[in-house]
Amino acid sequence: MTISTTKTLKVLYVLAWIIFVGVSIEAGGFIFSTIYTLEINPVNAHRSWPGLDLSSLYDYDRGYFLAEMVQISLVSVMRAVLFYLIIDILHNNKLDIARPFSKNVGRFLFRVSYLSLLIGLFSWFGTKYTEWLVSKGVKLPDLQDLRLGGADVWLFMGVTIYVIAQIFKRGIDLQTENELTV
């Protein structure tokens, strides 16, 4: 029994929706928690997100707390946008399996590569910022708990998808030339 590409894409579509909802809840939780902690209840810094105690950072400086939470929130929002792009291309039938070299797919690949690179860059800046804060004596959770780990993986993925996007761009050009000559 072979699994067709259409069935695989349907499974990926469902998985993308599940991940999108999870990442969106996480991003919204970080944004809400930041505003709630800064404006309403500073005690919330102890449990701003499950497993995330940033009370030491909040007590050290509210501005540094805000900067850290903005970086975490930005990375989470960009991950949500990435999965939204995947849902969008799979849902709106922009992906034609019979003719994969289309402008929609090329545009999608470039957007995903740029977004992956941005996630990698913001994660890397967040990692360096967190390491700098720890060197100042601020007790912070692990980078994985801060959702800032894996910057190198995001950068690698961004570069890889960018190369694939360039190959697709050339494929689109060749397909267009072939259609014009026939």
From TrEMBL:
Ranges annotated as spanning the membrane: 12-38, 64-87, 108-126, 146-165
Entry-linked InterPro entries: DUF2975
Record bears the keyword Cytoplasm: no
Protein name, entry field: DUF2975 family protein
Species name: Dinghuibacter silviterrae
UniProt keyword list: Membrane, Transmembrane, Transmembrane helix
Keyword Membrane: yes
